[in-house]
Inverse folding.
């Protein structure tokens, strides 16, 4: 079911993955091959990133948690991945939620804590609402709630651009410039602090270097819509009885803290942890605080 992935993929800058993520594995899913990384032992945490990021987003958090937890980081087909899916893979919101659910089923882990950030949090909610399976706890980190649009401003123009791969490629091509990457129109509203060049290259370059990766992210972005995310939220509010943690930044300029707090009040078992000096990519900005919050949540429920 799980086979080691090729280590040759780590050579090119756009294909680099941090050694801190652990062993590279391949999941053979109905949608095609999905790469993930596995490190540590103990209670299982499965991490889902959002658009134009990959498993590297969690490298610092995994390094802190692996001594006490099994950390599995998914490399989802959101534009920064290494392995394209099948051409007929469903990458609409419901399809991305199903992809996460299929990955969890393939991993065959028990008592899973599913962790989602940014659009990965939106898809994690869809996955849990449609098929809870082995998920016993949900962690949402600065992501869409039932009170946000998907995608939110200022990224709400991406679905229209993604309808034409050439248009999206031209738009994202500006990200080759490190200064552009830090602008508010790019990652400047997602990361408060600078990250290392290796991780940044792995986020922005894959869909610019490989046509098949661009194809996948165009499908993901062009199909994005708010309704499936809100429908999943409504179902979780009505039916979910499993613990939920909202790990948020009070300074987040994209996903308001007030929306997380409102969501938490209508779920059966939810709590909010506010982390300082960060934007939405808290795993980049404040990995120590985030790792501590995750550990305390998992061990307490």
């Amino acid at each position: 079911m799980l086979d080691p992935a090729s280590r040759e993929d780590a050579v090119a800058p756009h294909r680099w993955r941090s050694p801190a993520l652990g062993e590279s594995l391949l999941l053979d899913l109905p949608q095609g091959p999905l790469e993930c990384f596995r490190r540590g032992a103990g209670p299982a945490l499965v991490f889902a990133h959002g658009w134009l990021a990959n498993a590297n987003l969690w490298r610092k958090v995994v390094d802190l948690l692996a001594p006490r937890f099994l950390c599995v980081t998914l490399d989802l087909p959101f534009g920064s991945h290494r392995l394209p899916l099948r051409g007929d893979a469903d990458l609409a919101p419901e399809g991305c939620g199903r992809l996460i659910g299929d990955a969890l089923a393939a991993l065959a882990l028990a008592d899973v804590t599913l962790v989602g950030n940014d659009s990965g949090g939106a898809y994690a909610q869809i996955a849990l609402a449609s098929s809870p399976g082995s998920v016993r706890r949900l962690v949402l980190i600065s992501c869409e709630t039932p009170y946000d649009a998907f995608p939110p401003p200022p990224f709400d123009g991406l679905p229209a651009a993604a309808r034409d791969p050439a248009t999206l490629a031209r738009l994202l091509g500006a990200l080759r410039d490190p200064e552009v990457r830090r602008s508010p129109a790019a990652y400047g509203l997602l990361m408060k602090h600078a990250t290392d060049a290796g991780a940044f290259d792995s986020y922005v370059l894959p869909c610019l270097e490989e046509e098949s990766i661009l194809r996948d992210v165009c499908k993901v972005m062009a199909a994005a819509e708010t309704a499936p995310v809100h429908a999943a939220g409504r179902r979780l509010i009505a039916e979910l009885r499993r613990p939920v943690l909202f790990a948020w930044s009070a300074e987040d300029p994209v996903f308001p803290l007030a929306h997380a707090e409102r969501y938490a009040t209508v779920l059966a078992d939810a709590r909010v942890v506010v982390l300082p000096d960060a934007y939405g990519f808290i795993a980049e900005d404040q990995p120590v605080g985030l790792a501590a919050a995750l550990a305390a949540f998992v061990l307490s429920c």
